[in-house]
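Structure, all two chains, one model.
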Amino acid sequence: MSRTPAVNGERLLARLAAFAAIGATPKGGVDRQALTAGDREARRLLADLAAARGFAVLQDEAANLFVRREGTDPSLPPLLLGSHLDTQPKGGRFDGTLGVLAAFEVLEALEDVGARPARAVEAVAWTNEEGSRFQPGAFGSQAFAGGTIPSEWREAQDRDGMRLSDELRATLAALPQAKSRPLGIPLAAYLELHIEQGPALEAEDVAIGAVTGIQATRWLEVSFTGRPAHAGTTPLAFRRDPLVAAVAVLGELHRSIMPADGDARLTVGRIAAEPGSINVVPERVAFTLDLRHPDDARLAAIDATVREICARHAAAAGCRMEVTVLSNMRSAAFPESVVTLVETAAARSGLSCRRIVSGAFHDALFLSRVAASGMIFVPCRDGISHNEAEDVAPAASIDGATALLNAAVDYLELAGAPERNARA
Amino acid sequence: MSRTPAVNGERLLARLAAFAAIGATPKGGVDRQALTAGDREARRLLADLAAARGFAVLQDEAANLFVRREGTDPSLPPLLLGSHLDTQPKGGRFDGTLGVLAAFEVLEALEDVGARPARAVEAVAWTNEEGSRFQPGAFGSQAFAGGTIPSEWREAQDRDGMRLSDELRATLAALPQAKSRPLGIPLAAYLELHIEQGPALEAEDVAIGAVTGIQATRWLEVSFTGRPAHAGTTPLAFRRDPLVAAVAVLGELHRSIMPADGDARLTVGRIAAEPGSINVVPERVAFTLDLRHPDDARLAAIDATVREICARHAAAAGCRMEVTVLSNMRSAAFPESVVTLVETAAARSGLSCRRIVSGAFHDALFLSRVAASGMIFVPCRDGISHNEAEDVAPAASIDGATALLNAAVDYLELAGAPERNARA
């Protein structure tokens, strides 16, 4: 190529600001949940930016959005880069969006210098990674990897009773200029830049994390059903209070699981009592458990412990117990070749780098089942994410995009056709 | 009077069945929350029954509904009998409704025999006693006793954002045949028949409870605010989880308050976490506490204990704490004269009777502030109430109405004009 492609930092930061404005919250965060009007607006902006550079825009039936910069040999499977544009209800400006915009920046950087790799390069925005509105999370990347959308996923409803299938149809229709493509096309490789969402890189002042894998995640819903009764007249002996069982269970879990294992994560994000009257002993109490561990066997052991504790306290409170698995994602290990590609790219950019296991699951977890995949982490302030206060230093965003670009260039050179340099 | 007035048991049971059909739930309970369409339908049925017997129908600005059987001296303050027609979201067929229909049965029993007491007798259905849709509960009787509706009560909204003032207006408009009367007219006395909503009378096989007073009730909302964070990546040391604080507080309360004091009641009817995403450590957790005790001083001490425990665990979890008093009702003692009136009436009917403190608050609590008031309890199966399984034996309903009628007759004789017997 004529010149070495380089990240345009100002351009990248301006794009981050433009997307942060879509669904911006008063506290400086973003509320752009999957398949909402805000999500559609962000997808439209990406499509417009792509059109302005002459890149092709495509979407599949899961509303995964692809921006394609064609290669000299269109028959070769593309190198895919990306992440997601949807956010938590009170999410940040970088979770997902940084990875999508950095991927697009790679396409533009290649275009800026007229690079002519044999292989097409694509930037992707996966649909509904967060799963906060419709379950399961990583909807788009799971559908892509599986080649289909399970019918029960289409029936998923949000808390207002809106069905995913309807919102999906409306989202696809909102981007008529995008060409349709089938789910799960062949890929050369997949690379995803993301913020760490944890405190490690910042604490060690490391610029780049070469992600070796992703810990396992299991989501459970636990419910206890007792006997509703009058709050003022029912003595303790006559009560079967499901909230007493739930509190006893959670207290024991809080005291045992995380304190005993520094790699374990246990979080209760939702809890509710029915019928929900101040002066009625509840009939039913339900809560969710988000359980994670890098080791699949340890996670299974924690799951078993949870069920044992639930059964014990349900019996003690005279309540019926139910445990439902909402989601179960095995851990993933990325191929050594891709981890090395990231380390080499970071070193060539003069960026400090260390290997790291991802505490969060990402679309790359599912892509790793169908293509050589890897991830690049950059530090975020205080490890805060899924939070309006989420923040990433401008230099860190640029460092991450630079590592992604260099990894892509290295990969394309490895896979490039011989005449490529001659042409350049 | 020509004959001694007597309860028509078949009529009473048929009325109970007719009202149970309004808002009936599949599980045999009733969902007829205050100021809903169902509530209006029940009020309309009562008004139609009154018109059929030639009784006057009146309502005040709080939508308290009065059925008046005129006395020979309309200038005398009436004897008021009644309860409420609204229910919990998953309520029973007798809580409130039995008291209203038994009061109406008293009017009909007097009419059946052409009794001519000097004093008018009225049956009342107080508005929104339950408080499950709009707070505060006992809205109608509190407004009656206070002589006004506080403006903040008018602004109350239900969970769908409907305002009480709008629903109140619509409810009043739905009964155009009812004459308007001012809030808080002078009363001779107030008597309320109600199911015990507790297990004592049934356990002791006693037909009638002569209620000596009502225990104090305090409703609190407790909230903890921490720091939302990513469930998968945030180590224990970096968490400020308000749910951990809430669970620790509730665990300590469950282990201490009720086990240590058999007269104390502590119930958590509502709990919620925000933002409510499975994979986000909550930013805020809020729950309600329904605290009760027959002794005002003990209840105050329990309240102080709650605040101490909340503050301690909030500090331990690095969270901010807030405690709001949603409702605070002092205990009430009914006058000995009224308790004796009930005991005498029960004895005259050959019904077993014992004195009892009410575990629940009732409209009579507020009426007792403006008139000589008392209550009659009848047993309910297993003490279950605020529950679709709530049940009362047909004989128990008739016994309660009989005790109420005899107490009314005794009271009217005591207060009756001399020419009353001559005329009869």
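Residues 190 and 373 of chain A are 5 Å apart (CA to CA).
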